[in-house]
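Fold it.
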Amino acid sequence: MPKPPAPAGLSGSPSSGEPVYLAVGFLRRPHGVYGDILMEVYTDFPERLQAGTRVFLGEKYVPADIKHIRSHNDGLLIGFIGYETPESVGKLRNLTVYVPTANRPTLPDGRFYHYQLLGVRVVDDAGNELGTLTDIIQTGANDVYVVTSEDGRELLLPAIKDVVLGVDLSAKTITIHLIPGLLDTEE
């Protein structure tokens, strides 16, 4: 999945560090003759995108209102108000679709949005500093945390219960257990 660009001047509030917008999808190609476009879904909550929902398109966060929406294969077909033909909606091809962070749903305990984890310190259960969480790779089975040490080395950690022991966002720390084979001990 391509990463959405960082919002220019809108990457977060000074007090919380949260982004102003969250990417929920990516517009692929027009579909049919009535101005619908196929959207690849990034969000775990596609049901929150409904007719009348205001979204923001592309790096300039152009507001657009959803006219209608329906499932289509692995994505969604969306019609936007003011885009009635394949030619007009084709101008939206390859744009990321955003919603305001303030509209995000609350996650259950123990679940986090990726932006909340990026930049957090990672330590093992013995208290040894391993580095900072710099990326999250979505594999389908489970996420993989990319931890970068101060010397630039990367450690890949599966985001599973046997490895990730706890997340403390107030302390900005993730505690992990290094199971055999995760740490390259040969130099």
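The chain has a mean pLDDT of 85.
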